[in-house]
Amino acid sequence: MDFSRRRIGAAAALVLAGGMLAGCGGGGSSTDPDRNKDAESFSLTITRNAIEGGKNTEEAEWITKTVIPEFVAAQKSKGVTAKVTFQGQGVDDEAYKTKLALDLKSRSGADIMDVDGIWVGEFAQAGYIEPLAAVAGSAAGAWDGWTQIPQSVQKPATFEDERYGVPPATDGRLLFYNTRLFEQAGLPADWQPESWENIIAAARALKRLPGVTPIQLNAGTAMGEATTMQGFLPLLAGAGAEIYANGKWTGGGQAVKQVLALYAQIYGGDGLGDPKLQQEAKGRDKSFEEFAAGKIGILAEGDYFWRDVINPETGVAKMKTRDEDVGYALIPAVSPARGVRGQSFVSMSGGSVTVLNPNTDYPQQAFELLAFMNSAEMIKKRTAGTPEITSRTDVNKQILADDPFLTFVSEKILPITSYRPGLAVYPQVSTALQEATAAVVSGKTPEEAAAEYTEKLEGIVGGAANVTAR
Q: Phi, psi at residue 418, to the nearest 5°?
C-alpha cells in the first residue's frame, strides 16, 4: 500500500483528539467475540485506500475479483450465505486516515480495514481498534498463518504485546551501488561494507571519478519521512539504538550524535554527498534520476527503489542496465556487533496492517475473512505477475525463487529489521530528526544539532522523563 510517511494532518489530529461523534451504524459490543457466530447469513465490508482504475488498482481488483467471490463460494459450500462488499478509496493517505478515524470513533465503518503500521498504536491508544483476541477470541490466536509470519514482521501489527491485525506485506532498507562506477574506482563488484568506515572509504574512492556524487543519504525536511526512514533510523539502529524503546524516546546522546557525525562527514568537509539535493523540493526524485544515469555511486533506499523506481520496464527513473550495473548490500552497524540487539547489520521496514473493526456485528466471520485474505493461496494470487515481499515465508519461498533481489531482502533483511513506533507523536519526532540532519548539513556540529533535537523532543513527548540520553 502507498501510505505516506509524513506528519499527522490537522484534520486527523482533530479527529483523534476530539470527542465521540454521533453513531451511524455498527453498534456491536467489542467485548463479545461470539456474537452472531452461528449466523446462517451475514454481510461484511472491506475498505482500503485502493480503487479500481485508480490508486492501488491491483489491490482493489484482487479483492473484488478474487477474494470476495472465492470467500463467498467457500461459505456457500458450508451452507452459509455471505455478502461481502468492497468500499474502495482512492484519496490522499491523510484523508483516508481521517475517514477511518471518524468511522471508528462513531462506531461505524467497514468490518475489515487496512491501516498504516505506524497508525496501529495511535488508533489503539485512542480506543478505535482492539486486539484481535478481544475482537475475535481464541480463533485469532489459533490461526495457522502466524507460524509463517516471522516475529520481526509481526511487529508493526503489535502494540504493547498484543496483536491488532495481520501485516500482508513488508519491505526493507538497504544500500544500492553502481557496480560500473565501483569498477572504475577499483572497488569490488560484490561489495558488502562491514562498518560505516567501509562506506566512507568506498565513497572516498568514488570521489576520484569526475561528475560522480559518491553517496546520497537522505537528509533535511524537504525529503520528509524519507530522511527518517531511509537514512536516520537505519543508521540509529546501526549505532545500537531505536528511536523508541522501553517506554522512552531516544534523545540526543551518543547514538544520535554518531548518526549526525556521519551526516556531517558525508556532507561536510569530505564533500562525499551533494548537500543541495537535500534542500530541493524534488531532491529525492532528482537523486533517483542521477543514480539511474550513473551519477551517484551509493544510495540508501527501500527495496521499492529496485522494483519500482529503476525498473527497466516500468520504473519512474528507468535504468535499462539495472540488472547488470546495480549491486545491493546490507546496511552495516557502525562496527561489527554494535547495532541494535547486538547485530552487525540492520534495516528498517514498514507496511500496512489489516485490522478488524471492534464494532463489527460478525466478529467470527470477519476474522475468518481476514484469515482467508491472508492465506497462502490468496496471497499468491495477489502477487501473481507482480512479485513482492509478502509477510509469509512459505509464499516468499515460492514466488521469489526466481528473483535474487527480493529473495535477498526476504532472507537477509527481514530477520534483522526494525520498525517505527506506532504512536501518535511519532510524526513530530520524525520532523525533529529531519531538522537535526538539516542542521548538520548546513554546518552545525553534531553536538549542537543533537542538543537542539533533545530540547525539541522533550517538548514533543511531555518532558525529559520520557526521554533517554542514550
A: -130, 165
> Residue 193: what residue type?
P
Number of separate domains in the chain: 2
* Confidence grade of residue 8 (pLDDT, cut at 50, 70, 90): very low
Nearest to 234 by CA among 93, 150, 332: 332
Read off the CATH number of the domain in which 26 is found: 3.40.190.10
pLDDT of residue 317: 93
Domain of residue 263: give its range: 173-348+423-468
Residues 183 and 209 in one domain: yes
Residue, of 160 and 131, whose pLDDT is higher: 131
Taking a C-beta distance cutoff of 8 angstroms, is the pair 168, 352 a contact? Answer: yes
HSE-up of residue 81 (Cα within 13 Å, Cβ side): 2
Whether the per-residue pLDDT at 352 is higher than 50: the answer is yes
In a domain, 99, yes or no: yes
Dist. CA 410–CA 393, nearest whole Å: 8
Dihedral over alpha carbons 372, 376, 378, 381 (to 10 degrees): 180
Asked whether the CA dihedral 452, 457, 463, 469 is positive or negative, the reply is negative
Residue 369 exposed, middle or buried by CB count within 10 Å (0-12, 13-18, 19+): buried
pLDDT digits (tens, 9 = 90+) for 14-64: 454 444 333 333 434 456 999 999 999 999 999 999 999 888 888 999 999
DSSP 444: -
